[in-house]
Amino acid sequence: MKRRKNCSCVSRTSAIRGGRRLMAVYRRLHAAHGPQHWWPGDSAFEIMVGAVVTQNTAWTNVEKAITNLKAAKALSPKAIAAAPHHRLAAWLKPSGYFNIKAKRLRAFCTWLIRQGGAQRIARLPTQVVRAELLKVHGIGPETADDMLLYAFNRPVFVIDAYTRRLFQRLGLIQGDENYEALRKLFETALVTDAPLFNEYHALIVMHAKDVCRKRPLCGACKLGPLCPSRELGKDA
Question: Is the pLDDT of residue 183 over 60?
Answer without folding.
Answer: yes
